[in-house]
Each structure stands twice: as C-alpha cells, then as structure tokens.
C-alpha cells in the first residue's frame, strides 16, 4: 500500500514538472528569448486609390495644313511659333502653270459656247424645215419620205444640241476647277492658333499627285492642352470619365498640374506583349508652361474614402496559429468580446472581403498574447487598407515578428505556441 502511494506521488510530481516546463517554453522561443512583434497603430484618415501612367502632352486640336496642288514654294510668310489667324495667308506656290491652265480652260469654254450656239441654230433651222415639209405634205405637194427626212433632221440636230450643251457644261466645270487650283496656290490658315511645325522652305517643290504633303502644323489653342496617357490593361477598368488627375513634367519637377479624364479610348495598343489603352486627359495651360510633346507622369484618382479606420497592408498578411480569439483580457470591452467570439476559422470562412488582423492588448511587452480580430476590408492604396470591424483608433496591429522563434502566447484551447508563417 505504501509502495503504491509512493509511486503515485512521484508520478504526480513528474507531471507537474513537465507542465511547468511547457508553460515556460510557450512564453519563450527555442533559444530562450521571449518573442516580440513589430506593430503599428490603427489610425483614422483618408485613403485614395490611384492609377499611374505616362503620356504625351498635346494640343487639344492640331491641324496639319497641306497643299492640294503641286508646284514650287514661292513665298512663306510664317515661321515656328508664329501666331496666325483664321484666313491668314501663310504661303504661296508658284502659280505660272496654274494660270496658264486657267486660260486654256477659258478658251475651251468659249469654244464650247460657240459649238452650242451653232447646234442651237441648226436645231431652229431643222424645226422650221420640218414645219414647212409638214404643211406641203398636207397639201399633197411632197412625198411622205420628204416629211420623214425633215423629222429625222430635226431630231438629229436636237441631239447634237444636247451634246454641245454637255460639252459646254464640262468646259465650265474644267474652268472652275482650274480657277480653284489657282486659288489653292495661296495657302491660308484654317484656324486661329500657333505654328508648331514647318516642313517646307522657299524654293522647295511639293508634289500632291499621290498624297497631300504637310506644309505646316498649327496648334489651335495652346491654353487648353490634353495628355494622351497609356494605361495598363490591369488598371483601365478603374478609370472613368470625369475622374480627377494630377501630373508632373520633367521640366517642372516640383510643380503639380491638374486635369480630368475626358475620354477612355477602347482601342488597345500592344507593345512588347504589354496591352495599354489610351486615356485622354484635359488640362488648362493659361500660362503656356506646358509644351506639346512633353512627357507627363500621370496619377489618376480612381476612388477615395474619407475619415475611415485604416491598417497597414502588412497587418493583413500576418498569419498565426494557436492564438486566442477572445477579447482583451481584463479590459472590460464587451463589444470586442462579443464580436470576436465568432472569429473561429480562417479568413476565407468569414466571407468575401473579410480578413483577420492580430492586435496586442496594450503594448508590445514581451510575452503578450496577440488577439485575432476579423475585419471587413475596403479601399486600399497599396500601403494602407480601410477596414471596419471591432477595432479602435490607436489599437496596435501586428505587422511581423521581431524576435523569438515563434509568437509566444499561451493557447487556452490547444496549448500550442502561435507561429508566424
């Protein structure tokens, strides 16, 4: 009997020693060092989601002025950066050949008029002869064949008159075309604007036989510019017309310009297997500091949230096992206790948009137990994410482990140390 009690005593003592050793292990790492965590405070503020892109600055309306006739540039009246008005003469083409063409067309027109007059006279004569032959046939003075011959002559001369009229109209059209081409030898500005490109010089020959050559490029209004930005296909779905935009240019690195999305073009462009879409951004340029062709670094504000609780994104990537789900021990925070009691399971079990953060009750004292708190995530700017749930401004969320082989907190349910992985 005494020997049995003695065995029972030593058995209980061994169990007690093992339990004590495990408790010590759960509060320290394998190297004896108490685990601590990097933390950051939950804050309240604003979050803005943006899309970044690059693009070229261009005038809203740029007109390429060309020549519709061939010839030698005789005179140029403007240069780069010249301000021009609509209808202003900006260049002349040598019109010698064109003037000769006009005189030729006038001569052809006069000839066609004479031919028409001659045909009209023949028609009148043929009609009179037909009337006379008709009267004589009625009195049986001529044969029927004579009457039919007169009818044929009248019809033939009428057709010849129609042909002469067509030739007269063609000659008139040719003259108008020649005069128009002569007028095209003087090149006028089609808009009010500024000359930003000049591709010809005096004495240069231009040929418009196959395509219209560009002589000048005129930007209509440089006080209103646009940015043609290339937005990646991964971001284009967020961009909508009217969204606010800010951008910078290399020549003014400390200045920020503002604008708005005016158009999202649906045609994609593929460069080295990268698919982008062109977004047109309107911008004011009252002081003319922005030049056509500048490279713009664009930031498009696609969404924003004001006065929201936010946590660093690193806090949403922390994963632990064996830490309690409950409320702050001894804090008396009944709201936290009630809501976190349902936080059993992984983030995916909590539904779409629900994730988990880990908080320390008061401060990052060694040996503290992080608590698991489910939150509903909202807008993110890449560094911070808006959350809603049982969190308060100033709560310390775990963003990583600083020391210790594992997070050292007692698990009241599984008696296992929490781990970072």
In short:
The chain is of the alpha+beta class and 421 residues long. The chain is built from 5 helices and 19 strands. The radius of gyration is 46 Å and the shape is elongated.
Show the helix and strand layout.
Elements: H1 2-26, E1 36-41, E2 43-59, E3 62-66, E4 71-76, E5 83-84, E6 89-93, H2 96-138, H3 144-184, E7 186-188, E8 193-198, E9 205-206, E10 214-219, E11 224-232, E12 244-249, E13 252-271, E14 274-284, E15 295-312, H4 313-316, H5 334-340, E16 354-360, E17 371-380, E18 384-389, E19 396-403
Antiparallel strand pairs: 1-19, 2-11, 2-15, 3-10, 4-6, 4-9, 5-8, 6-7, 8-10, 11-14, 12-13, 12-15, 13-14, 15-18, 16-17, 16-19, 17-18
Helix pairs in contact: 2-3
Structure description:
This protein is α+β, with helices and mostly antiparallel strands. It has four domains: 2-46 and 309-403, no CATH class; 50-60 and 219-305, Beta Barrel (Elongation Factor Tu (Ef-tu), domain 3); 66-92 and 188-217, OB fold (Dihydrolipoamide Acetyltransferase, E2P), CATH 2.40.50; 95-184. It has five helices and 19 strands. The chain has helices spanning 2-26, 96-138, 144-184, 313-316, 334-340, and strands spanning 36-41, 43-59, 62-66, 71-76, 83-84, 89-93, 186-188, 193-198, 205-206, 214-219, 224-232, 244-249, 252-271, 274-284, 295-312, 354-360, 371-380, 384-389, 396-403. The strands form three sheets. It has a six-stranded antiparallel β-barrel with strand order 2-11-14-13-12-15. A four-stranded antiparallel beta sheet has the order 3-10-8-5, with no helix packed on it. It has a four-stranded antiparallel beta sheet with strand order 7-6-4-9. Strand 17 (371-380) and strand 18 form a beta hairpin. Helix 2 (96-138) runs antiparallel to helix 3 (144-184). The longest helix has 43 residues, at 96-138. The chain starts with a helix and ends in an 18-residue tail after the last strand. Residues 13-32, 326-352 and 405-421 have low confidence and may be disordered.
């Amino acid at each position: 009997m005494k020997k049995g009690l003695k065995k029972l005593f030593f058995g209980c003592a061994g169990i007690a020693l093992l339990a004590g050793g495990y408790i010590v292990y759960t509060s320290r790492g394998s190297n004896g060092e108490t685990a601590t965590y990097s933390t950051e405070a939950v804050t309240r503020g604003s979050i803005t989601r943006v899309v970044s892109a690059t693009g070229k600055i261009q005038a809203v309306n740029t007109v390429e002025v060309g020549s519709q006739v061939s010839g030698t540039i005789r005179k140029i009246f403007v240069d780069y950066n010249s301000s021009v008005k609509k209808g202003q003469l900006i260049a002349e083409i040598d019109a010698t050949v064109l003037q000769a063409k006009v005189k030729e067309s006038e001569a052809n027109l006069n000839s066609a008029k004479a031919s028409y007059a001659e045909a009209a006279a023949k028609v009148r004569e043929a009609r009179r002869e037909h009337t006379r032959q008709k009267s004589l046939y009625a009195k049986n003075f001529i044969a029927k064949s004579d009457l039919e011959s007169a009818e044929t002559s009248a019809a033939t001369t009428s057709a010849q008159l129609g042909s002469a009229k067509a030739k007269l109209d063609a000659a008139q059209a040719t003259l108008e075309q020649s005069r128009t081409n002569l007028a095209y030898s003087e090149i006028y500005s089609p808009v009010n604007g500024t000359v930003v490109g000049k591709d010809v010089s005096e004495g240069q020959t231009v040929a418009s036989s196959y395509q219209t050559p560009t002589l000048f490029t005129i930007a209509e209004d440089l006080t209103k510019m646009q940015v043609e930005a290339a937005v990646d296909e991964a971001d284009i779905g967020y961009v909508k017309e009217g969204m606010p935009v800010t951008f910078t240019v290399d020549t003014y690195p400390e200045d920020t310009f503002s604008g708005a999305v005016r158009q999202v073009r649906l045609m994609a462009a593929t460069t080295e297997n990268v698919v982008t879409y062109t977004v047109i951004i309107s911008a004011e340029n009252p002081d003319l500091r922005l030049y056509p062709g500048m490279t713009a670094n664009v930031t498009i504000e696609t969404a924003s949230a004001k006065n929201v609780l936010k946590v660093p994104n690193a806090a949403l990537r922390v994963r632990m096992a064996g830490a309690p789900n409950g409320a702050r021990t001894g804090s008396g925070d009944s709201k936290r206790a009630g809501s976190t009691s349902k936080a059993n399971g992984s983030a995916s079990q909590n539904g779409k948009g629900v994730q988990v953060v880990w908080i320390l009750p008061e401060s990052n004292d060694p040996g503290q137990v992080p608590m698991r708190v489910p939150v509903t995530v909202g807008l993110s700017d890449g560094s911070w994410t808006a959350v809603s749930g049982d969190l308060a401004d100033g709560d310390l969320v775990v963003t990583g482990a600083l020391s210790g082989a594992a997070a050292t907190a007692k698990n009241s349910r599984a008696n296992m140390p929490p781990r970072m992985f």
